[in-house]
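Possible race condition, two jobs.
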Amino acid sequence: MPFKLNIGDGENYLKWTGFKLEVKGDILGGTISGTRLKVGGGTNEDIYFEDSGIRLYDANSNLLYFSKTGLTTLCITLTSTIAILRAVANNLQLESGIGSNVQFMAGTLYTYFYHTGQWQLPNLGADPTEHLAAGQLAIVNNVLRIYNGASWSNV
């Protein structure tokens, strides 16, 4: 029969069952080394870095949130074919590796920046009527258009 250890009470304890070490309460340590850190047994788990205030939060089976107190939050969605980055508030800057393309999606419309330097806008069926500002570009019925601050015209 393996040796057993049980120190503490029902609220906080250190217990060796003979097969695993169970800890309930806070652990304070310098360096903890190992091959894997497993946090929790389900979703809604997080890792918090106290000195910097950075939090890594498991929001769902394929969603990760990085946040810092007082700053915006970055959400990473992982699927079997794509990784999606979202800034929960404000703007997001993306950088891709050599030979990689960047795809932006707003609603159902996609814009691509190709590693070859090309920029592809979605092909719209009509001139945009919202969020207008001078200098905006749009592809409308396969024609490149520009907004001059008052109206759209062909480039």
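Job #2 (started ~2 s after job #1):
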Amino acid sequence: MIEEGYSKVSALTPNKVTETKSWEMLMEEYLPDELLNKVALEGLNATQIKTSFTEPDKKVPDYGVRQRYLETILKMKGKLVEKSENKQTGEITIKVISEKYGESDSASNPELPESTTDL
């Protein structure tokens, strides 16, 4: 932050900047929710091409990329609590995810899991 012109005090306590109304306005202007949703859905449906000398190329799910996107989304929505943030047990806790991606949506989008127990 110092390289960008912020004071040493601001650099040591970035939440004084990131928890302001003007920061929220900047985030909404440059990273609107619609864009974040679009990119998140692309990441949750990430695929990779598996090549072989003996078989045709296959498009398969890229579970590593999907997991990183899911973790990032859960953190952004405040639904994933890291070990360092969970002082009581020292374990990772995931809050309940909304029912938005229940069975009805998974039938129309086979890339989405059948239930949250598959995650």
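The first strand starts at residue 47 and ends at 50.
Logs attached separately.
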